[in-house]
Amino acid sequence: MPKTLLSTYNNYPYKPGGGVVKRFLWYYVNLIFFKSGWFPFNAFKIFLLRLFGAQIGNGVIIKPGVNIKYAWNLKIGTHSWIGESVWIDNLAPVIIADNVCISQGAVLQTGSHNYKKESFELITGNITIEDGVWIGCGAILNQGITAGSHSIVTSGSVANKNLEPYFIYQGNPAVKLRPRIME
């Protein structure tokens, strides 16, 4: 039987972008100003994200404890909220539209591994979160997912497939429960 051989793992052809110096600087900026709870000042965080190449709209709120892998792979529209301890593991682009709420402890995971290959190759895919989506506490969106406009992923759910607009999803894997009816 074939076995996983992590000694043969190679990120090729993946390139994180930004260059070595930018990635090095971002690592420490992220550690000090984002992941840490010691720096709650939102406007400065937005400034830093833009400085490192993120596209950030007006009225965005980023709470303490947020971990962002690569600022230059992040686009956030207007009036969106990123809750405490959210992990944006954006090896590939993450696009968050307007009026999106990503609740505490949620994970946006753009990378995985090809378990069928001995070398456990890296697999990446963009995540797109359309207008008005709510990602509940501790929910996970995996690589290649589009969360359709105003869809909801309930707390603790794991989305492995695209989410249709105006529907509520729950479970692991997340399944469509019912329409989201707004008043």
What's the SSE blueprint?
Layout: H1 19-35, H2 42-51, E1 55-56, E2 61-62, E3 67-68, E4 74-76, E5 81-82, E6 87-89, E7 94-96, E8 101-102, E9 107-109, E10 111-113, E11 122-124, E12 127-129, E13 134-135, E14 140-141, E15 146-147, E16 152-153, E17 158-159, E18 167-170, E19 175-179
Parallel strand pairs: 1-4, 2-5, 3-6, 4-7, 5-8, 6-9, 7-12, 8-13, 9-14, 12-15, 13-16, 14-17, 16-18
Antiparallel strand pairs: 10-11, 18-19
Describe the structure.
The chain is of the alpha/beta class. The chain has one domain (42-177): Hexapeptide repeat proteins (UDP N-Acetylglucosamine Acyltransferase, domain 1), CATH 2.160.10.10. Helix content is 15%, strand content 27%. The protein is built from 2 helices and 19 strands. A 7-stranded mixed beta sheet has the order 2-5-8-13-16-18-19. Strands 1-4-7-12-15 form a 5-stranded parallel beta sheet, covered by helices on one side. It has a 5-stranded parallel beta sheet with strand order 3-6-9-14-17. The longest helix is centred in the first third of the chain and has 17 residues, at 19-35. The model has no long low-confidence stretch (mean pLDDT 96).
